[in-house]
C-alpha cells in the first residue's frame, strides 16, 4: 500500500475521539495528496407502537439528524484543510458490518477509540470476528491526534503480515520525517523482571530476522533513518506496549507467526495501548 493518493475512510459518530480520528486522517491526506471519506453507520430505531402492537417509527428525524452531524464534521475539516477532498456518506447498517465491507475497497480505515460505538465494543468485542480480524485494509486506531513527535515503531517477526506492517510504517515515517524503529520482542529471558528491557542474549536467528526487517524498511524509502531494537518481555504484547511509550505510531501485523485466528497480540496491544496503533491484516483464505 502506498500512501500517496490513497483513499482514506474514517468512521464517524460525533464523539470527541471520532473527531480526533477525522483530523488525523485529514492531516495525513494533506501530506499525501489523498482524499478523506467520512462514513456514519446508521440503523433504523424501533420506538413506539403502531397497529397490532408492532413497533414503528418515522426514520426521517433520526436519519436527518445523523446526516447533519456527518455534514457538520465534513464542513469543519474542509474549512481546516481546504486542499483535502472530503466526502461524507450516511450508510444503513450496523457499524462493524458497514466498516468491514468498506475496508475491502479502500486503502486505510481510521477509527477513534470510541468511534462508531466504542472501539472495545465494536472493534474488539468479538474474538473471532470484528474489524481487526475481518478488515481488508490497514486499520488505524486513534486515541489522540496530538501525537506529533517520537518515532514510528514497526513490530517484526519475519511473517508476511509483519513485512507489510514494515512497509506501512516506513511510508508513515517518510511522510512525517520521523525515525522508524523496527522492533522484535523475544518472550522470556530477563524481560519478566523489567518490562521492555533490551535483549542482550538474542540468538543469531532473531538478530538476522531483525536485520531483515530493518533492511526492508531502509530499502523502501531512500534516506529514511531506521533503527533496530531487540527486546525481551513476558509476552509480545507487553514488549510492544512498553516500546511504544512516547511513539508517534505503533504498526503491527494482525496475524504474525501465530496461527490462532484471534490475533491475540494485536487485540491485546490495541486494547491496552495509550497511543495510536495501526494494525495491518493480511487476508487469508481460512
Describe this structure in words.
With 286 residues, the protein is α/β, with parallel strands linked by helices. The protein is 37% helix and 21% strand. The protein has 9 helices and 11 strands. Helix 6 (160-176) packs across helix 7 (204-220) and helix 8 (236-243) packs parallel to helix 9. The relative contact order is 0.14.
Structural key phrases:
alpha/beta; 9 helices; 286 residues; 21% strand
Fraction in helix = 25-40%
- The gyration radius over C-alpha positions equals 20 Å
Beta-strand percentage range: 15-25%
Topology pattern, helix = H, strand = E: EHEHEHEHHEEHEEHEHEHE
Which consecutive residue ranges, at least 5 long each, have pLDDT under 50? Answer: 46-51, 115-129, 191-195, 256-262
Number of beta strands: 11
The biggest beta sheet is recorded as: 11 strands, mixed
The 3D shape can be described as: globular
What is the topology, as strand order, of the major beta sheet?
Answer: 3-2-1-4-5-11-10-6-7-9-8
Helix segment tally: 9
Average pLDDT confidence is 80
Distance between the termini: 23 Å
Class based on secondary structure composition and strand pairing: alpha/beta
How is the secondary structure organized here?
Blueprint: E1 7-11, H1 16-32, E2 35-42, H2 60-80, E3 86-92, H3 95-103, E4 108-112, H4 119-122, H5 131-134, E5 139-142, E6 152-155, H6 160-176, E7 180-187, E8 197-198, H7 204-220, E9 226-233, H8 236-243, E10 249-253, H9 264-272, E11 277-280
Parallel strand pairs: 1-2, 1-4, 2-3, 4-5, 6-7, 6-10, 7-9, 10-11
Antiparallel strand pairs: 5-11, 8-9
Helix pairs in contact: 6-7, 8-9
Amino acid at each position: 500500500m502506498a500512501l500517496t493518493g490513497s483513499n482514506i475512510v474514517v468512521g464517524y459518530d460525533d464523539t470527541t475521539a471520532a473527531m480526533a480520528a477525522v483530523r488525523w486522517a485529514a492531516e495525513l491526506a494533506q501530506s499525501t495528496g489523498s482524499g478523506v471519506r467520512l462514513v456514519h453507520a446508521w440503523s433504523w430505531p424501533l420506538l413506539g407502537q403502531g397497529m397490532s402492537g408492532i413497533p414503528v417509527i418515522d426514520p426521517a428525524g433520526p436519519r436527518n439528524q445523523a446526516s447533519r452531524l456527518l455534514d457538520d464534521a465534513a464542513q469543519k475539516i474542509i474549512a481546516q484543510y481546504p486542499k483535502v477532498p472530503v466526502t461524507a456518506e450516511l450508510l444503513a447498517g450496523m457499524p462493524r458490518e458497514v466498516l468491514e465491507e468498506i475496508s475491502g475497497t479502500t486503502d486505510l480505515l481510521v477509527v477513534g477509540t470510541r468511534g462508531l460505538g466504542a472501539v472495545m465494543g465494536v472493534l474488539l468485542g468479538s474474538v473471532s470476528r470484528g474489524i481487526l480480524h475481518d478488515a481488508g485494509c490497514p486499520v488505524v486506531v486513534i486515541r489522540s491526534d496530538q501525537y506529533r513527535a517520537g518515532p514510528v515503531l514497526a513490530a517484526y517477526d519475519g511473517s508476511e503480515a509483519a513485512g507489510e506492517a514494515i512497509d506501512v510504517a516506513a511510508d508513515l515515517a517518510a511522510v512525517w520525517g520521523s525515525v522508524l524503529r523496527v522492533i522484535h520482542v523475544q518472550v522470556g529471558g530477563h524481560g519478566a523482571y523489567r518490562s521492555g528491557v533490551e535483549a542482550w542474549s538474542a540468538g543469531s536467528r532473531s538478530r538476522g530476522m531483525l536485520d531483515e526487517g530493518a533492511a526492508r524498511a531502509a530499502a523502501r524509502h531512500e534516506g529514511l533513518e531506521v533503527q533496530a531494537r531487540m527486546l525481551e518481555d513476558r509476552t509480545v504484547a507487553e514488549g510492544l506496549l512498553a516500546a511504544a511509550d512516547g511513539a508517534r505510531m505503533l504498526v503491527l501485523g494482525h496475524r504474525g507467526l501465530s496461527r490462532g485466528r484471534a490475533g491475540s497480540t494485536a487485540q491485546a496491544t490495541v486494547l491496552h495501548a495509550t497511543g495510536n496503533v495501526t494494525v495491518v491484516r493480511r487476508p487469508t483464505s481460512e
